ATP-binding cassette domain-containing protein
Amino acid sequence: MTETSLVEARGLTKVYPARGGSAEFRAVDGIDFALRRGEAFGFLGPNGAGKSSTMRMISATSPISGGTLRVLDLDPVTQGPQVRARLGVVPQDDCLDRELTVRENLYIYGRYFGLPRKVIRERIAALLDFAQLQDKADEQVEVLSGGMRRRLTIARSLINEPEILLLDEPTTGLDPQARHVLWDRLFRLKQDGVTLILTTHYMDEAEQLCDRLVVMDGGRIVARGAPRDLIAEHVTREVLELRFADQDTAAEKLRSSSRLAGGRLEVLPDRLMVYTADGEAALAGVHELGLTPLTALVRRSTLEDVFLTLTGRSLID
Ligand SMILES: Nc1ncnc2c1ncn2[C@@H]1O[C@H](COP(=O)(O)OP(=O)(O)OP(=O)(O)O)[C@@H](O)[C@H]1O
C-alpha cells in the first residue's frame, strides 16, 4: 500500500455463489482503485453495477472473493473488527430505531462501540449540532422527515469519530432541498478532514461532491478521474437534446445529415442527443433539414453523458 492511499484495491472481485436455480454471479470483476486521505471518492453507476458490493467489502461486512484489498493498512477479511472500529457506514436503508428518540439512537450506537457514557454525551451534543437536530433531540425518530433521518444516520455513523465515512446512495429518495442540506453537511465533514467514499447513481451528486470517481458498469470500472476531467475527456462541451413526435424518422434523417455542426448522434428511447461543440449551430442544422422538434434543449455535458457515451445506456434507465 502506498503511503498516501487509505484504501487500495487490486483486481478486487466479488462472486456470489450459486443459489437455488441461479448460477454464481460475478458482481465485482477485478477492479483497481486507491484512495487518498481527505478526498471524496465516488462510485458512480446504474443499479446492479457492483457499487454496494464494493462498499460492503471495504467496510469489512462482506469477504472479498479475489484480488487484494487494504483498508487503513489493514486486511478487512482477517482484521474486520479493527477496520470497522475506524469506519463510519451510512447504509442505503437508515435502520434507525423509530420508537426511540434521536438522542437515544445516538447513545445506543456509542454504547455499541464501547465508548464511555461521558464521551458519548459530549459527542452527542456535537453531533446534534452538526446534524442540525438540536430541536429534535428528544423527539421519536418516527416523526422526523426523510432528510432529518438521513442526517441522523450520518451523525450516528460519526459517533466513533471515523477516519473514513462510507455512504451508500446518501440522498436517494430525498427532495431537492433536503439533498442540498445533506451535501452541505458532507462538505463540512470533508473540511474537517474525513475521507468520504460514496456511491450514487445521481450525476449531479457525483459532480458536486466527488474529487475523483470511478464509473462502474457490470462489475467493472469503465472510466475514472475528476468529474471535470472525465467530461472533458469523453464528451463534447455541449449537448443538444431533442424530442420528436416521430423519433425514428427524425433519427434517420439526422444520421445521414452533415448539418449537425460535427455533432455525434446518440439515440435514447425517449430522446435524441447530439454531442457537439456548438449546440445552437447543431439546432440550426436540424431546422434546415425541415425537422421540427417538440422540444430542443442545449446544455453543457455532464457525467450522465460520459456514462451514455461509454456504455450506450442512460444511468437512469
Ligand atoms: N448477496 C447477494 N447474492 C447474490 N447476488 C447479489 C447479492 N448482492 C448483490 N447481488 C447482485 O450483484 C449485482 C451488483 O449488486 P450491487 O448491490 O453491488 O450493485 P449496485 O451497483 O450497488 O446497485 P444498487 O444501486 O441497486 O444497489 C446485482 O446484480 C445484484 O443482484
User: Anything to note?
Assistant: The chain has a mean pLDDT of 92.
